[in-house]
Amino acid sequence: MELPKEYDYNAIEEKWMDTWQDSMYYFDQNSQKPGFIIDTPPPYPTGNFHIGNALNWCYIDFVARYKRMRGYNVMFPEGWDCHGLPTEVKVEELHGITKSQVSREEFRRLCIELTTKNIERMRNSLRRLGFSIDWSNEYITMEPEYFGKTQRSFVQMYANGRIYQQNHPVNWCPRCETAIAFAEVEYDSRETVLNYLNFDELKIATTRPELLAACVAVAVNPDDERYRDFVNTEIKVPVFGHKVRVIADKSVDPAFGTGVVMICTFGDKQDVRWWVDHGLPLRRALDKTGKMTAIAGKYAGMSTEECKKTIIEDMKIAGTLYRQEKLDQNVGLCWRCKTPIEILSERQWFVRIISDEILNTANEVAWVPDYMKVRLENWTGTMEWDWCISRQRIFATPIPAWYCTKCGRAKVAKEEWLPLDPTQVQPPEPCECGFSGFKGEEDVLDTWMDSSISALHVCGWLSNRNLLLPAQLRPQGYDIIRTWAFYTILRSKALLNIKPWETILLNGMVLGEDGHKMSKSRNNFVVPEEVIKKHGADAFRQWAAIGGTTGSDIIFSWKDVVAGSRFLQKLWSIFRFSLPHLSDEPAPFTPVDLWLLSKLNRLVKDATEKMDAYQFDETFKAIRGFAWEILADNYIELAKSRLYGEGKGKKAAQYTLFITMETLTRLLAPFLPYFSEEVHSYLNQGSVHLQAWPEVDGSLINEEAEAMGEQIKEIAAAIRRYKSGNGIALNAPLNGIELYSSITDASDIAGAANTEIRLKTGTPDIEVVPVEIRPNMKNLGKTYRSKARPIAEAFKDVDPVPAGSENIEIEVEGEVLTIDPSCFTVIKEMHVKGKAVDILAVGNATIVISR
Ligand SMILES: [Zn+2]
Ligand SMILES: [Zn+2]
Fold it and tell me: For 459, which of 142, 325, 468, 567 could close a Cys bridge (C-beta 3.0–4.6 Å)?
């Protein structure tokens, strides 16, 4: 069978994509094999599977395919994390509406419609990239089957005291009009102005004069002599005139501003701390849309910006503001819209964070790479208050609770009532007070409440299957350690008191070719589809494999992709050459075969260890090096003559090549699913992806065989260099070669040199024979002038052997001259058994080439 010269990745990849059955990758609930469940990240259905996702999925697929071949019952599920703000914003954009212009049900319907369409598009990308996803375990968080579990998790955690409702300050985005969690606050440095105010008898400096109406205290450091007499007195707030207490607190920095700070509800997190520690009253100066409230008097209804501008002008005129200076400040922004956040006290639902529990559980999980655990440790304990899980939005899992319209009590649903939307249905039983009128909770859950039970869901929690928690692997980006990893550990412990996974595998971020974060504005943005179109999925996957070590950021590189497609072509050429020569019939191996098989088994051993350690780059580089250098450049070159010939070594070479190609195909299967399947289809029945990972045959790993093979390889290379150095065509035969070495089978050297080789032991008897006296014209000319030429002529008649390198006596034109050795060179030849030869030394072998 003649294979086409060019590897047509497009036709081959599409052929297999259409041939493969989904059921090949189904997790088998009844299997006796050890399970390997992967808690795949559910991507956000934006419609585009971005390159960072693609990198992560490549890692997951390498592991899934490898583990399957190692005999595990693998689950590689695909989830979709549907809910949340980005979809709402997109729907508003697409339909030119705001969420309040249509009914909640209609708005939800539009969100579901968009999400469904986007998921379908992304499924196609996943298939095209060749991921071995278990589609029978797909989950979509907006579907009742999933969000019903989110609701049940809420109910269970409410019952065990891990969820509670409270009026408490929370981070608030005035543009999105919702509470957000600490993990959703991004920080950015901005320049602001520090305003110095005459504050009754004191002077204070503040960056937020617009919150003066919300001032509830003034604080000084207890050790600050300047203000000792003011502690516990009351002073009057400028502009608004209400009185506040002066309190002493060690955390006030006497060196900042005037050493006196104004405490507002709430300018920042520090205000919240003081407010709690000193039991201060609450004054709400901002509403949920970021507008000033009635207590702001004449400023009511203004935005914070407007209020700030106006009140500063007013205070300047009144002489209250006496100085301003610039100040750099870290400002918290909404992750979604980058609006500066405010801190508002609202009734919200919270999940209790128990830091020790999270840290202890993190220690029970293996982190790959291990240094990533520090990120979780650093984050844990930085939050000022518990996880706020209620959101004032629409497209999310409804909080299953109602409020009694008579007594106001909150009623949380029972598990058996779920799933439900409390704005659509009433509870089937009355309130504790006996009344049966309820208002459904309109707040919805933080979308991390859905995704943080992904591990529980895929492991069979709340299903009729066995609970298989912990999952074996959580693959994810390091950018969501403080959210997804943190919340999943928290929830798994709170609900089932068990760690969610055995191992967490972190991937880095993908940077553009210029080394910067990919963005459309930088023009360094690449989508996986574009890469696949130009070079195919297998080339893309090679970039993912070798782009960097797991956990490190990796730069997207077209060069790596192109190198990947070249390697595919190289592999294809190797296979195309090999195919007519393959035979699965065993035959006695030659030293070169044993050398290759030893290297091959070493590769299998190495690749297995590296795959177990999630070192994809190292594994792939080792396989590539073997295929390219050892197999193609050396073995095939050496064994070619046997393969084309009819000698006894032919069968051994055919069998060796078969074993090697077949093993290589299985080693490549996790990385290059399409290519390996194509090659495998010529070698064996069934899919390569249902075969076992190669086993190491330890009896074939043999250092002596390797040393022998290396020597043969080097001898063949030395002869090749000899030919090209002497202007002899590489395939031209030499007059004869004698090889003095411990090599017992030189058939491949003979084949490569196209010359008969006589094997000898010991060392050759080399005679060095002077054969010619060659004049050194420069020195001859200097000394003998016009006689130089006749002298040179006369050298031809001198017997070089006795002449040696002494002075030569020579008769020229009747005159006897004594010629100094600086005037000639004695040319010597090497002779073995009286014949002229060239000698090449390779290690302890000597190659004698007849001239
Ligand atoms: Zn926002
Ligand atoms: Zn009631």
Answer: 468
